Amino acid sequence: MGRGYDFNTLQTDFSSGKSVAAILMGIMASDGNLEWDAPVTRYWPEFGKNGKDWIKVVDVMQHEGGLPFLSQNLDFSCLTTERIKANCMVEILEKESVMN
Description:
The protein is an all-alpha fold.
């Protein structure tokens, strides 16, 4: 019935990182290092470009920040280890505009 499940088996994880991020954000908030109602720009000033300066941390966490998708196609080269370390996705998100 198949070869079984081992360390070579490919696995989809979809949005599993969101729960880890939410837990970490909760810990930061309970430790006083994050305010839910603060603008994202308090922690990431460059995020405020192109009309995103009003978006609060809570908006991002509730998927209500007006960024339902990227306006450009994502080049999968941005997902290599080197490009992740070079903040490729950060640059893309900073350039995005809020959708009306």
